[in-house]
Amino acid sequence: MKAKTSFLGTKLTAEQERLWDTFIFLAKVLVLSIPLYFVILTGVSLAPLQMLDATVASSILRSIGFPVLQNGALITAGNPPFTFYLTEDCTAWKSVLFLFALIFAVPAVSMRKRLIGLGLGIPIIWMGNQARIIGVVLAERATNVQFAMLTHDYFWRVFLVLLVLGVWLLWIKRPAEKPVIRHHHAGKRKTRGRLISKKARR
To answer: What is the pTM of this model?
Structure first.
C-alpha cells in the first residue's frame, strides 16, 4: 500500500492522511451545497412544499383533537387559537440538501447505494419536520407562545441537524461481512501421479 502524497509531492504521515481526507470530504460538502445558495439567491418559490407541509400538519392536528383552520400555509390551531405561518424554511428543504451533500461527498460508494440513502433518508427527515411542527403546537398548549417559539428556534433546529447526521451515519455504516465457512471432507483427498497399472503391480 503506497503512502499518499500532497500536491507538493511530499509524503504524508498517517495523521496527515486523515486530515487530508477530512479536508477533501468537507470541500466536497461545500461544493455539493451550491444548490442551497442557488435557491437562496434566486428566490426559487417553495410554495408547493409549504402547502404540502401545512396540509399534512393540519390533518395530524385534527386527528389528535385540535380544531384547525388552514389558509394556505397559515394555520390556526386550538382554542384559544394559536396562529402560525409555515415559511419556506419550515419545509426542511435545507436539511434534505444537507443530507444530499453528505451522501454524495463520501468517496467510493455506488450510485445505487447513494440513491437508496436518499430514498430512505428524505422521508425520515420529512417526518421529523412534521414532528417539529406538531411539537411546537403541543408546547404552546402546555406552556405559552414564548416557550413554544424558544423550542422552535433552538431545540427543534438542533433536532433536525442531529436527525440528518444520524440518518447519514446509519447509511454510511456498512454491514459486517459474513465469515466464510469452509467445509472439509475427511477421507476424500485426491492424489495425483500415483496411478499404478495392473501390469506394474504384478
So the answer is: 0.73
